[in-house]
Design brief:
By secondary structure, this protein is an all-alpha fold. It has helices spanning 2-6, 8-101, 106-179.
């Protein structure tokens, strides 16, 4: 105690030194806290971006599934058209056979021949129309399949990026926990 009274400057210098060390420690901790806040902000922004991308991918996947269902319906419609075209072709063949095999009066033959010819022309027009529709639907199905494949590729890419970001975020959190 007498030493303290005898040398007040030494005690004051020691207190100043301790205060400076404490201030340096506080400054260091504040810098560390600020750096971690920046990392958390960056990770949060990255997470929000990836979350938005994930929602977009989910939306695209739902759209692709709808398009796939539409494509399946078109495929079924195409099969129905093929059957109808085949049936019409049989009808045309039967009508042509009936036209050739008639032995009625020339006037009746002429009337029936005109009717059958008109029927044949209508059936041929329907067949051409259905074939045209079939080609159009086939092109649409191919485009839908291409879009579905592209959406699937995009979904896989975003999922990989999201996974990488999650791994990086966990790594930064572990490093931050270790530094504390």
């Amino acid at each position: 105690m007498t030493e303290r009274i005898a040398n007040p400057h030494k005690d004051a210098n020691a207190n100043i030194l301790r205060a400076e060390k404490a201030e340096a420690r506080v400054q260091s901790l504040e810098n560390l806290l600020s750096e971690r806040d920046r990392k958390i902000t960056a990770l949060t922004l990255n997470f929000k971006t990836k979350d938005g991308e994930s929602k977009k991918v989910d939306f695209n996947a739902r759209e692709a599934k709808l398009k796939e269902a539409e494509g399946h319906q078109r495929t079924m419609d195409e099969e129905s058209m093929r059957r109808k075209i085949a049936w019409m072709a049989e009808e045309v063949a039967l009508a042509e056979m009936r036209l050739k095999g008639t032995t009625e009066t020339p006037k009746q033959v002429y009337v029936k021949a005109n009717d059958l010819e008109n029927h044949i022309n209508r059936v041929k027009q329907e067949k051409e129309s259905m074939e045209s529709n079939y080609k159009t639907q086939k092109k649409q199905n191919q485009e839908l399949q291409r879009q579905l494949d592209q959406a699937e590729l995009n979904l896989n890419g975003i999922a990989k990026e999201l996974h990488k970001s999650e791994i990086k975020a966990e790594h930064f959190e572990r490093q931050a926990a270790l530094k504390e």
